[in-house]
Amino acid sequence: MASKKAGTKKKAAPDAIALLKQDHEKVRTLLGQLENATGPRRQKLLGQIETELKVHTTIEEEIFYPAYHQAARKKEDKKLFFEAIQEHHVVDLVMPEMNDGASPEELKARAKVLKDLVEHHADEEEKEMFPRARKVMERDELRSLGEMMLRRKEDLMA
Ligand SMILES: [Fe+2]
Ligand SMILES: [Fe+2]
User: Fold this and answer.
1) How many whole angstroms from 95 Cα to the centroid of ligand 1?
2) Distance, CA 82 to ligand 1 centroid (Å)?
3) C-alpha distances in Å from residue 15, one per residue of 65, 66, 156
């Protein structure tokens, strides 16, 4: 069909929350694989996880969280913002230690703790912050934040 120009039409960006959830799924999968991985495979997975987390937490902290914080009126909603930032900080602290540890048992324990930390944080976002964000933010705003984050993500990945 003449009107259908494959590849020229820009793909519609997912809304902010859908985009962040996609990232969470990806990281959950990688963290699940990390626990039993050893040697070069472990190194590769760790590198991927580190990149994914860095990009994801950056777009949240630069774009999504400030918009959420601004839209939030209730004390409880604002509290979720401050807790989320602190949890990112804890992950940042733990990440550089992922290769410390003399034994395979220690490395495995570190992978388990990282997984628990990240999963707890992502679950809280999905069960608490994101539903609140849907309440306090307009659909259009979530859509344009999604577009901004997608663009920023592409920059950061490049
Ligand atoms: Fe987060
Ligand atoms: Fe997140």
Assistant:
1) 15
2) 11
3) 14, 16, 19
